[in-house]
Amino acid sequence: MSGTVKAALIYPPLTDPTSGYHSLNYLDSYARAQGHQPAEIIDANIEAFHHSYTPSAYDWLRRELSRLSIDDLSGPDALMARANQLGLPDPDPERLRRSIGVLQDPTLFYDYRHYQDAVEGVISWMDALGSVGFPGQFHAGFRLHPPPMISIGSVAALTDEALLARLNRPFLPYYEDVLIPRLAAGGHQVIGISATYQWQLPFALWIARLVRQACPDVFLIAGGTEVSDVWKCASKPEYVFQVLADFDAIVVGEGESAYTEILDAVAAGTLPAGHPNVRLHPKYGRQRHLPLRYERLAQVPVPDFSGLPWDLYLSPERFVYYSPTRGCYWNKCTFCDYGLNTDGPTSPWRQDTVATMVADVTELSKFAKFIYFSVDVLAPATILRFAEQVVERGLDFRWGAEIRLEKYWSDERCELLRRSGCVAISVGFESGNQRILDLIDKGTKPEQVRRTMTAMTKANIGVQMMGFTGFPTETREEALDSVTFLRDNPDLWTLGGLGDFMLTPGAIVAKEPERFGITNVRPVEGSDIVRMLKYDEPVTEAAQAEVAQAKAGLNPGHYHRPWLGSTDTPHTFFYHDRYGTAVRGVLANDRVRHDTDDQTEFLANGSFVDRDDEQVWEAYRRIRSDEQDGVPGELPADRHLFRRVDGQVFALNRSSRLFLDLFSAPLTLAEAQRRLWIVEPTVADRVWRTFIGQRLIRRHRLPAEPAR
């Protein structure tokens, strides 16, 4: 072993800009403990974002937008691109800078009116930036909506150079001016790219291509959950390195010891063929693969996060991820399919000792106020012993985790969690119907879940609820049990809601379809990386539309990940720390018409979509109908489509448009009422309440900033 290997580790777009992720820090800290020198860790996601509004990149963006053409596209792709161009905002770097300032400000961040305006400013910028690729490719700012063939995992699409180049075009100035020159001059022998989410894969592939061209002799590796999923879900083994063709090797599964052995091999001038989690490119010849290795947590040191660019993240506080367990101690849920599981729903269960956990958070809390336990689940007795020691030692930090709502959690134990710094938990309650819970093999009962939620709420710990409808054979009535459970207990949970069941190949449901009443199980047509399966099951399918209608509006949050209102995001934990279980009311307050609003100026918070080209407008209507995030039904063809600043589209009738057009310039509600004197005041007031509640209009003047 030698510590002389110079390595760079890259976290690519497109993902959460509010905090650094922990995967690369775990790898680097482990390698350093084995005697290797620190790697250069590059968060390309946040660097690319900040570079996009520098003067040179903004000039480039304006030039690109002025000559933006989609003439090279044809068929559905061209129509989709033209449709998504409708209503896109102009880039405003000054507004973006103000928005970043608010999100990083320890006072303004916690004023929800300032927060909303800032988030919408960032999303608006990303919408404009994304339009130089495939218009509409960025959603909620930092989620990728690529062309369908990319989404479903087509090898042809994932290896299409022109398609990948177009998706990556918004970040071209960053690649050309910053990232690639930095790597080319860096003298690295190993460069690694880690992709955690599917959204990152097209960017990771393109960065790899650029690195291979600029640094032909470097040993280029890929890892992360998404790379493991490509390996796990490829319908043919050869597809893996067709997609990951530019890499010398990939790491499948947990990567600490695999990464270190790669460094050892490069230092020795050999190939890293001895570790079972390392898969070499076929150009190095055939390999004999041993069973995958799962790390011994006792050998994994506390991660060092000091190398991340903390001044760049869009948050007022540092927020770090910590993983003292791997796998799930329950490991029975029939829908679950996570990690490199072989004979169970998750990876094998492992857990650090309480003493190690306390020692680790003692170090981490010197660096960051917020620590999120990034695990599948924490065991109740372990959490309690951990909390006891945190309180005894007087450690001052905030934390949250995903747990199971066991009957173990009494009022007294929940109070202890809160005293130890726990501000919020998230729970997969899955369903409010006992038969469905039994089919899932969840091991819980709705009434017990309610009692545990009550105990957590009494302790001022926010409970974030995660569940879904559509599990095979679920009837309309059983699905509505879940809706009713959440709707009847609004004071016992803060954020969350109900998603839709998706079947993945490694789930017990997919392995035993007859047990769950499903037939004709098949991959999505055109997919080579098979992440999701389709199937036939008439009972659940018949209830989908009505259930979707019932679920609409359950989630009190207003924005998608990575923003406040989404489960387990840094911003959500910050607000839980500040406002406790009252966070729902804080979010709702600015969406309510107040008595003092008659003399408040409001302004339209978006614009109507141009209808000059009926074919394009109709395509836009259909596309956005499919993107309504759980809101059922299509956007009616006879409605006016209003695109809110954050990209959400609303279908308004003619009379609503007459009301909303009043606010094209700042206007008080009292003046708007005078201009609409023919309309009954009670009717107008109902319209104002709807517009404010849906943030179609926003208060023109934000609260005064505090004196510095």
Automatic annotation (TrEMBL):
<keyword id="KW-0479">Metal-binding</keyword>
<dbReference type="InterPro" id="IPR051198">
    <property type="entry name" value="BchE-like"/>
</dbReference>
<feature type="domain" description="B12-binding">
    <location>
        <begin position="132"/>
        <end position="273"/>
    </location>
</feature>
<dbReference type="InterPro" id="IPR023404">
    <property type="entry name" value="rSAM_horseshoe"/>
</dbReference>
<keyword id="KW-0411">Iron-sulfur</keyword>
<dbReference type="InterPro" id="IPR007197">
    <property type="entry name" value="rSAM"/>
</dbReference>
<feature type="domain" description="Radical SAM core">
    <location>
        <begin position="314"/>
        <end position="558"/>
    </location>
</feature>
<dbReference type="InterPro" id="IPR006638">
    <property type="entry name" value="Elp3/MiaA/NifB-like_rSAM"/>
</dbReference>
<keyword id="KW-0949">S-adenosyl-L-methionine</keyword>
<dbReference type="InterPro" id="IPR006158">
    <property type="entry name" value="Cobalamin-bd"/>
</dbReference>
<protein>
    <submittedName>
        <fullName>B12-binding domain-containing radical SAM protein</fullName>
    </submittedName>
</protein>
<dbReference type="Pfam" id="PF04055">
    <property type="entry name" value="Radical_SAM"/>
</dbReference>
<keyword id="KW-0408">Iron</keyword>
<dbReference type="InterPro" id="IPR058240">
    <property type="entry name" value="rSAM_sf"/>
</dbReference>
